[in-house]
Every structure is written in structure tokens, then in C-alpha cells.
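Help needed: design a sequence for this.
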């Protein structure tokens, strides 16, 4: 052994080409699924491109596998077409919102999946104004349909709120999959996970408003009537799994990962409510989370060694040369004599 380190690509010159080919195949597979989601939604490509903030040329390249979709773009496609990001990435085992039925593909953009459009309009209005202040007529106007059309898909306003809650859960789940898919380090993953679930952006504040109203309703009603507790359990399990991975890799402190996840999610909930209601600003919110992570989750980094010094090295040496002192009057008189 000569002590020199070689990279995997130096040991295997074909490895880099293999990785490039794998990324290309992955991009092509994702492009095919995005194309299928667009087809099933009944939306035109130009509308999808506008929804995710890119031009049609870039969308066409991504659909053909010549360009990779970014996390934000995948999230935008999933939101516009009604599928999940996990489905777009090719993992159907944990899909929570499968693509719409191909047997009922609409003929025009305006008629594309009206039930989903109604639910999204309800989500926006409930999030901004609250359940009690929103009328069926308001949701009908916002979604561009008649009130009887609303009742065709939803029995009452409570059903509409449940659909809005499902939409909130889907948004949060899609955001996690899109942004956490390529983060391997558990510490970075946990930080990003908490940031994604924080009420810091406009969409996230809308989700938190829906969740806060849901908590209030569940405290007054039978919790078995809602699927939200199961959705919350999935979120808590995601945090717990991340903590367990961090413990295995030595990044997090030892302890009961379930209890640590419960404490962390409870802290996030409490701080999030303070931000949402204006009691706490976002900077303080972020600082409180960081402090808790450092104190209770992250493994403390070893302090840098402080160099020891001897007394001789810290005490200045006495000068070896004598310093001439000014002559006194007596000395001056002696010299003159």
C-alpha cells in the first residue's frame, strides 16, 4: 500500500458512465409518469408548464428524459394533476392519492377533474376565512361551478372540509418526498423535514390553518370520524425513523426514538401555533427549534482541544540588556568636576 486513495471512478472507469446511465433511465421513467399524469388529468402541457413555472421547451425536455425535474417542479406537477410525488418517482407502494381514473378523462381544461378543483378551492377559502365563515356558494364561485354541482360531489360542508384536509395532507406528504428524496444525512434530513412542516410559507400557513381547525373540531367531536389521526401518526413515524437512523450513524443522542419524536413534534406544534397566531416571530421559532435539537437530539460534537502552555511560555522573559537610566543631578555634578 502506498497510502494513496483512489476514487471509485478511478478503480472502475465505467462506474461514472453507469451512474450517468442510471440517472438518465430514472429521468426517462419519471418523464413517462409525468406524461401519464398529465394525460389522465386532462390538462394541456402549456397549462402544466405555467403551473410549475417553466416554459414548454423545458417541460418537453424533462418529459423525454433529457432534463431532470427539480423538486419544486415535481411538487407542482403532483399538485396540478392530483397524483403524488412518490407515484411520479415510481414507488407505488406508499401512494396516498393515486392518479384519476383513465376512463373519465375530461375533454377540456375547464372540466378537468372538477371534484379536485372544488376541494382545492375549499382548501383555500377554509384556510383563509375559517370553516364557519365560508358558504357553499363561496366555494362554488371560487371553483367556477354551480352550487348544485358542489352537492353532486359532496354531501355537505363538512365533507368539503374533510376533502380540504386530505388535500393538506397530500401537500405535506408530496413536499416531504420531493425534497427529502436525495438527502442521505439524517441530521440534514431532520432539519429539512422540520422546515418543510413549519408555518413559514404561504402554502404552509394554509395547511396549518386547516390543521388547527381540525384539532379544534376533533376536540369537540368523535376523533374516529376523521382520518387525520392516522395521517399525523404517519408524520410522527417519519420523524421517529429519521431519529433512529441518526442514532445508528452516531449523529443523534441515544434514547427512546418514539419518545424523542413525540417531544419534537409536540414542540413543533406548539411553536407553530404561536407563529400562526402572531404570538411568536419566525426567527424566534427557528431559534427555539435549533436550541432543542442541540440540547436533546443532536449528538454533541467534541470540543476542540485547548493547547496547554507552560508557565515559562506565558511569562515574558526579563530583558538581558540593561537600560540606561537618566543621569541624576549628583551624577551630572560629578562628571562636570
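Sure. Designed sequence:
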Amino acid at each position: 500500500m502506498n497510502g494513496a486513495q483512489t476514487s471509485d471512478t478511478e478503480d472502475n472507469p465505467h462506474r461514472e458512465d453507469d451512474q450517468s446511465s442510471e440517472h438518465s433511465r430514472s429521468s426517462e421513467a419519471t418523464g413517462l409518469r409525468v406524461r401519464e399524469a398529465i394525460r389522465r388529468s386532462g390538462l394541456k402541457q402549456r397549462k402544466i408548464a405555467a403551473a410549475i413555472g417553466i416554459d414548454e421547451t423545458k417541460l418537453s425536455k424533462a418529459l423525454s428524459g433529457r432534463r431532470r425535474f427539480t423538486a419544486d417542479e415535481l411538487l407542482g406537477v403532483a399538485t396540478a394533476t392530483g397524483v403524488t410525488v412518490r407515484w411520479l418517482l415510481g414507488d407505488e407502494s406508499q401512494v396516498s392519492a393515486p392518479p384519476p381514473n383513465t376512463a373519465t378523462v375530461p375533454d377540456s381544461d375547464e372540466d378537468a377533474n372538477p371534484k379536485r378543483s372544488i376541494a382545492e378551492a375549499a382548501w383555500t377559502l377554509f384556510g383563509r376565512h375559517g370553516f364557519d365563515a365560508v358558504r357553499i356558494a363561496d366555494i362554488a364561485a371560487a371553483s367556477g361551478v354551480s352550487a348544485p354541482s358542489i352537492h353532486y360531489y359532496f354531501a355537505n360542508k363538512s365533507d368539503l372540509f374533510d376533502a380540504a384536509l386530505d388535500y393538506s395532507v397530500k401537500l405535506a406528504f408530496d413536499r416531504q418526498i420531493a425534497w427529502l428524496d436525495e438527502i442521505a444525512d439524517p441530521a440534514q434530513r431532520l432539519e429539512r423535514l422540520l422546515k418543510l412542516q413549519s408555518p413559514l410559507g404561504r402554502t404552509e400557513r394554509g395547511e396549518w390553518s386547516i390543521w388547527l381547525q381540525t384539532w379544534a373540531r376533533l376536540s369537540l367531536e368523535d376523533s374516529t370520524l376523521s382520518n387525520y389521526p392516522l395521517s399525523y401518526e404517519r408524520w410522527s413515524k417519519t420523524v421517529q425513523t429519521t431519529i433512529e437512523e441518526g442514532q445508528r450513524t452516531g449523529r443523534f443522542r441515544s434514547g427512546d426514538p418514539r419518545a424523542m419524536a413525540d417531544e419534537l413534534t409536540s414542540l413543533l406544534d406548539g411553536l407553530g401555533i404561536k407563529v400562526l397566531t402572531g404570538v411568536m416571530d419566525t426567527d424566534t421559532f427557528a431559534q427555539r427549534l435549533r436550541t432543542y435539537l442541540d440540547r436533546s437530539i443532536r449528538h454533541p460534537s467534541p470540543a476542540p482541544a485547548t493547547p496547554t502552555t507552560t508557565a515559562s511560555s506565558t511569562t515574558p522573559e526579563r530583558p538581558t540588556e540593561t537600560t540606561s537610566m537618566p543621569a541624576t543631578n549628583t551624577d551630572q555634578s560629578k562628571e562636570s568636576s
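The chain is about 65% helix and 0% strand.
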